[in-house]
Amino acid sequence: MVDPNYASFSTVISLVCPSAVASKYIHDHINNHFQLDDKMVLDFGAGTGANCCICKPDYYLGIEPDARRVGLAQRLYPNHRFMIFDEKQIPAPDASIDYIFVIAVLHHLDDSQIKNYLLEFERVLKPGGKIIAIEPCLWDHTPFQNRFMNWYDDGKYIRKEEGYLNFFHEGQYHCQVLKKFTKCFVYNEILFSAQRDDGTYAVPSQI
């Protein structure tokens, strides 16, 4: 589900930043906050599969609606499992997933799509399972970055922090904002987790 513009932007900045983009801005952040060993991971909107690198092959499933991207992911990472997603039902049994990666996906989805997918997330997550999300985010004090992201990105639904979290709060998830960062000066991003809870919600943090 990662759009070509977002991917091409990552390719450009990978030439500028010393570390590979996926490792620096996705994998390192996830590994700093979560223990993935022997945990079943669903990569929702896996694109060409780069996130599988931090998961054991037997504990990873990447789903993606673009068949060409799925084919490329299968060639690049033949030991990991990738499937074409019909954008309706996640191809996983009930209560079978420990973590769901949602990386640069939500800002491509309208409100109704997110609400529908949250029902599927609830179905496939094990008790205590978590959603791990990284998304571009609008910040009140960074008008230039906000304009750049809205101009450049194919995603039509880049939101403020509370705009993302409210979907999960309404679905009875507890959210924790784990990291806010700016990708090479122009892309503001937020890392947060979401877990079904007893009805107490995190308050969106102040930037």
Descriptors for this entry?
alpha/beta, single chain, disordered C terminus, 8-stranded mixed β-sheet, 207 residues, Rossmann fold, 6 helices
Overall description:
With 207 residues, the protein is of the alpha/beta class. It has a single domain (4-85, 95-188), classed as Rossmann fold, CATH 3.40.50. Helices cover 34% and strands 28% of the residues. The protein has six helices and eight strands. It has helices at 4-16, 21-33, 67-76, 111-124, 143-152, 161-170, and strands spanning 41-44, 60-64, 81-84, 97-103, 125-138, 159-160, 173-183, 187-196. The radius of gyration is 16 Å and the shape is globular. 38% of the residues are buried.
Characterize this entry briefly.
This protein has 6 helices and 8 strands. By secondary structure, it is α/β, with parallel strands linked by helices.
CATH topology name? Rossmann fold
Shape: globular
Query: Mean of the pLDDT scores?
Result: 87
Summarize the biggest pleated sheet.
Answer: 8 strands, mixed
Total beta-strand segments: 8
Distance N to C terminus: 28 Å
Structural class: alpha/beta
Element string (H = helix, E = strand)? HHEEHEEHEHEHEE
Assembly state of the chains shown:
single chain
Helicity range: 25-40%
- State the name of the first-level CATH class: Alpha Beta
- How many domain units? 1
CA-atom Rg in angstroms: 16 Å
CATH H-level name... which superfamily? Vaccinia Virus protein VP39
Query: Please, how many helices?
Result: 6
Provide the β-strand percentage band.
25-35%
Low-confidence stretches: 2-19, 199-207
Q: Give the CATH architecture.
A: 3-Layer(aba) Sandwich
